[in-house]
Design goal:
heterodimer, A: alpha+beta, 2 domains, 7 helices, 47% helix, 11% strand, B: alpha+beta, 5-stranded antiparallel beta sheet, 40% helix, elongated, Transcriptional regulator (chain A), Cro/C1-type_HTH (chain B)
Chain lengths: 190, 540
């Protein structure tokens, strides 16, 4: 697509991909366990979440928590402590399962029976760009009615899918949508 | 050549001017056509005041005069034909009723007369072409079976634009009881049961069709109406149970406040930006922790009272947070800057080194009870207060040193309409002794302020900066009240929280007593001792 940025940041503009901002916001809305996984309280809580039922355990195993029941039992009883790599895996599995579980509810709230959610798009930061190269990029808002693809790919951890879905959404901003490929923030409530 | 063309066109233009009726006739024509000045002025491309000039003695000239004459001419012609048709139809119906009373013809059944014959069973109305052509817009159908008139409820023989009604106001008599008249016995029930349900809608429809003039000065439902409607709805829902209605209203105060905010921002210059990027200093460090902003909450008690026993009055500032909604709020995303002087047109949070405060004995420190020294992040109202106190008028301290700022272009009017709507609702509620509205308004503004930051109870608005600014504004307002009391010769004993001010002396000559937001009310009075610095609170 011709509007896409080829070498973003070459002249000093700063920002993140719009889809990343959306993922960040969705993570924020999904909430979850705040204590870091490195603390015992944190990984314990995550393990309890992942072993609450056979289905979640299955989902956790699918998400990469491939340890034996023996190990899990030892962890949960506090006899052993997960290694650093295991902690990472636990965190990863927790995030995947949590996203998957929350996605359904989040999607319903964002779609709001077809009324959609108002999204604010805050443009990229041009403060470090030379004066003559700065462009007027305005703050924009839009109503996004269909979140299915966005939330779906977010829940699946599919970055490229989310990027594509978000791009198809911001095309509705009009011919200048390329200016909003990179943003400082994307804000919406659910 | 071209010179002569121009002269020719000028010569053409000079000619007899269009004839205009006298001024009062112009006005009368417009009013009879139910057109507003604004409408006519828009059509002619002039301002409404110009039009009023034309209607009160002045005359337009040139091309616009021709246009105006054309309009008046058209109105004149149209009104003349309308009056003719009106009189025609009136006479016609009169004759019809006359003939009808004499001989029962089936073309036009009497409006009042119930038809009990077998012909009434046919529900489908017969359209009569002769009547339909008389009226130029509406299609009038003659009904074989009279239906209840949508205006008065009595059986009517005609249907206009799909609704049964009488054609003349003489026939159409609204029932005194208000209940729709009982349908005639012989009428099909399926047909009559529908009629009362439809009575409200057609009434509105006829009102709407009265002309475009109705729209121009139509009263829009304002934000105050929104509050009143919510209260009335809740009271109706709980059948007048005040406590239950209050509880229900308080429960939905946050979404209602957001709706009110949206309503008050309609057609406004600035958007309410609800989810900007937030700098780290405004983010909570932990889930239950605080961010780094110092709101300058006063918590000050005078160390030594003036000698002698004193009557101390604890004053309560009414609606402190409501008044604090008027503050300089940053509109967009906060931008970082270092080492700049204060810009009055911007607002936000600032890292400052506060000045020394030397009046601790008589007045609280404007930055509140801060234990640790060094620079701190304060908000705009605190900074403005410090700058004001360091200014030539007061000279109470040195100006603060600003190191860093996160600011954005600001306006004081962002929540102004919102505040005024709430204030008006509050004032009327106090006047009428309406406890429900009072509680509802109070819940709305206080919860709006406390949840506009990172709260899960209000996810529509994510502005921790505004929350801090509004709170600080409330504290700064209290501080200024303390200063006012001090300057008027009262001894300020204590300044606490958002709305508590204890003073010694005749405070009534400084503050007005009452319940309005500009007034104060007495919370408590107690005497404070002389012997020791601690005052023994009797009423505390």
């Amino acid at each position: 697509m011709p509007e896409k940025n080829i070498d973003f940041g070459r002249f000093g503009a700063r920002g993140i991909k719009g889809s990343d901002a959306v993922a960040r916001k969705l993570d924020e809305l999904a909430g979850g366990i705040a204590t870091p996984v490195t603390a015992k309280r944190g990984w314990m809580a995550r393990l309890h979440y992942l072993t609450k039922s056979t289905q979640t355990l299955k989902a956790a195993q699918d998400a990469g928590l491939t340890v034996t029941h023996r190990t899990l039992k030892a962890w949960l009883e506090g006899k052993r402590r997960p290694s650093k790599t295991s902690l990472e895996r636990i965190d990863q599995a927790y995030r995947t399962v949590r996203r998957h579980n929350v996605a359904r509810h989040l999607l319903r709230r964002l779609n709001r029976d077809g009324r959609g959610t108002r999204v604010e798009i805050h443009p990229l930061n041009q403060s470090q760009v030379p004066q003559q190269l700065q462009r007027v990029v305005e703050y924009r808002t839009m109503n996004v009615r269909r979140w299915d693809r966005i939330v779906g790919s977010w829940a699946a951890g599919d970055h490229q899918g989310l990027d594509a879905a978000w791009q198809d959404t911001i095309v509705d901003l009009g011919s200048q949508w390329g200016q909003y490929e990179y943003v400082t923030n994307v804000g919406f409530a659910a | 050549m071209s010179d002569f063309d121009a002269i020719d066109s000028l010569l053409d233009a000079v000619g007899p001017q269009a004839e205009l009726p006298p001024c009062h006739v112009r006005r009368e024509l417009r009013e009879r056509a139910r057109l507003s000045k604004a409408q006519v002025a828009r059509a002619l491309g002039v301002s409404p005041s110009t039009l009023s000039g034309w209607e009160s003695g002045r005359d337009p000239t040139g091309e616009i005069r021709t246009k105006y004459a054309y309009l008046l001419d058209g109105l004149n012609a149209k009104l003349a034909t309308e009056t003719e048709t009106e009189t025609e139809t009136e006479t016609e119906t009169e004759t019809e009723t006359e003939t009808e009373t004499e001989t029962e013809t089936e073309t036009a059944p009497a409006a009042e007369q119930p038809v009990t014959s077998g012909t009434a069973a046919t529900v489908t109305p017969l359209s009569s072409p002769d009547l339909g052509q008389d009226e130029d817009g509406d299609d009038v159908e003659l009904l074989v079976a009279p239906e209840p008139c949508v205006l008065c409820g009595h059986p009517a023989g005609q249907r206009v634009a799909g609704f049964a009604q009488h054609l003349t106001p003489a026939d159409c008599r609204p029932t005194a009881t208000g209940a729709p008249a009982a349908p005639p016995a012989g009428q099909p029930t399926a047909h009559t049961s529908k009629a009362p349900l439809r009575t409200t809608r057609p009434a509105r429809a006829t009102e709407r069709s009265k002309g475009p003039a109705r729209h121009t000065f139509q009263e829009t439902s304002g934000p105050v109406d929104l509050i009143r409607e919510a209260v009335q709805g809740a009271l109706a829902e709980h059948r007048g149970d005040v406590d239950a209605a209050t509880a229900a209203l308080v429960k939905r105060a946050i979404p209602d406040a957001m709706r009110l905010l949206d309503e008050t921002r309609k057609g406004a210059r600035y958007d309410v930006i609800a989810h900007p990027w937030i700098p780290d200093i405004l983010k909570k460090q932990t889930a239950r922790g605080a961010d780094q902003i110092w709101e300058a909450r006063p918590k000050w008690t005078r160390h030594e009272l003036p000698p002698g026993r004193h009557q101390v009055t604890a004053l309560d500032i009414n609606g402190a947070y409501l008044s604090a909604l008027k503050t300089h709020l940053p509109l967009g995303q906060l931008e970082h800057s270092t080492g700049l002087a204060h810009d009055r047109r911007r607002s936000g949070v600032h890292l400052i080194t506060p000045p020394e405060w030397e009046h601790e004995a008589v007045l609280p420190n404007p930055i509140g009870q801060r234990d640790e020294p060094g620079p701190l992040w304060v908000t705009e109202p605190t900074l403005r207060l410090l700058l004001r106190l360091s200014g030539p008028k007061h000279q109470l301290c040195e100006p603060p040193q600003i190191h860093e700022s996160y600011t954005s272009g600001a306006t004081e009017n962002l929540l102004e309409k919102f505040r005024i709507a709430l204030k008006e609702a509050r004032d009327t509620a106090i006047e009428q002794g309406d406890r429900v509205t009072l509680e509802y308004v109070k819940a709305m503004y206080s919860k709006f302020v406390s949840t506009m930051g990172e709260s899960n109870y209000n996810r529509e608005l994510y502005r921790p900066d505004w929350m801090h600014l509004i709170r600080s504004q409330a504290f700064a307002n209290l501080w200024l009240k303390a200063l006012k009391a001090h300057d008027a010769g009262l001894a300020v004993v204590r300044a606490m929280g958002t709305d508590e001010l204890h003073v010694i002396g005749d405070w009534r000559r400084v503050f007005a007593e009452g319940r309005a937001v500009t007034e104060v009310k007495v919370k408590d009075t107690y005497t404070a001792g002389t012997d020791d610095a601690e005052h023994e609170g009797e009423g505390e």
